Amino acid sequence: MKKTIALLIILAIAAYLLFWPVPIDPVAWQAPEAPPLEGPYATNSALADSQSLAENEGTGPEDVAIDGQGNLYVGYDDGRIVRFDANGEQPDLIADTKGRPLGLDFDPDGNLIVADGYKGLLSISLAGTIETLSQRANGVDYKFTDDVDVDSQGVIYFTDASSKFGPALKARDDVLEHGGHGRLLRYDPATDRTEVLLDGLQFANGVALSQQEDFVLVNETGSYRITRYWLKGEKAGSHDVFFDNLPGIPDGISANGNGTFWVALFSPRNAMLDAMSDKPLLRKVAFRLPTFLQPQPAHHGFVLGLNEQGEVTHNLQDTSADAFAPITSVEQHGNTLYLGSLTAPRFAAYTLPAGDPARATNPQESTQ
Question: Which numeric CATH code is attached to 2-351?
Fold first, then answer.
């Protein structure tokens, strides 16, 4: 009798793992072999020198924006957008989107442009008034408005990470499905028009403009690559791969205005996740497992610097138990890199060492 009961339990578990309905419909693909953490990606402890800011003021300051006075702005998972002074002190509530503010940037008029995962593309005035700029494109609503970068004329480039899975389901579902639901978009406030530049992206995440604003980069988290869309010149309107086969899972990307792109890697690559890339059924089984049995990101602070030719210029890491991780954004102001995180109860600052070519000529100047 006991053997029969045990067999029935095993069969029930097997049936659940194989047949229980799930919201993902995985697509087979072939993940490239992850580069080892050596050479240009060698493990190091550079980010151990970073300083924690605004401890326990809120959870998940995913991005950091810096105004002309050096004040720091972050958005928390409860919808609050809070301003701090340059030392990460004196918190001041600017607005509450009632959503999930993710990417942040300022437009030329001083408005804070917000990619809110639930609410879409928003503009917040100096007085704290919230205006909705865009919530859909080509008749398709945004499900996961993620990151934003504003050009010198006020034109806004932003991403809808997934038109299928929203922030409540997190990026995991879209990455496990690999269905190409991400989009790169452009909003022109002069015409109130939103244009889809690229679609079919694998979780379209961070976005950043080049120094001359002749191309824009978008991180494809689910494919471990950075895609480039040309805005000017003979290649305008076309796209190519700017950087392929990253050593980690890319999240945010920003430009420092002097030819360096900062790439936040959520964690190093996960061997189990890569091994399942061409096995859709196995990814469904993994989805049904308890969360603690699913592929998990390592607690590993990881930032890369790239020049505009796609060459690695910086490799900043921290593997310690108290490392600031996961890092989801990097923004440079003067000689400081401000680090955001999707889940941490703090954000962080890292000072570029003397002699670093990415340091600002004028330390007071924002190179964001």
Answer: 2.120.10.30
